[in-house]
C-alpha cells in the first residue's frame, strides 16, 4: 500500500512541476508577444506619420488580435 501512495505522490509532484513550467512558459510567451506588439505599434505610428498608411489602416491594424486597442 505504501508503494501505491508513494507512486501517487510522485505522480502528483510531476504534474505540479509540469504545470509550473507551463505557467512560466506562458508568462514568457506573453511578455515576448507584448514586446513584439509594442514594436509593431511603433511601426504603425511611424507609417501613419509619414503618410504611408491611412487613419483607417491604422485603426484596422490596432483592432487586430491578440492585443487589440
Automatic annotation (TrEMBL):
Identification of the protein by name: Uncharacterized protein
Organism field: Candidatus Uhrbacteria bacterium CG_4_9_14_3_um_filter_36_7
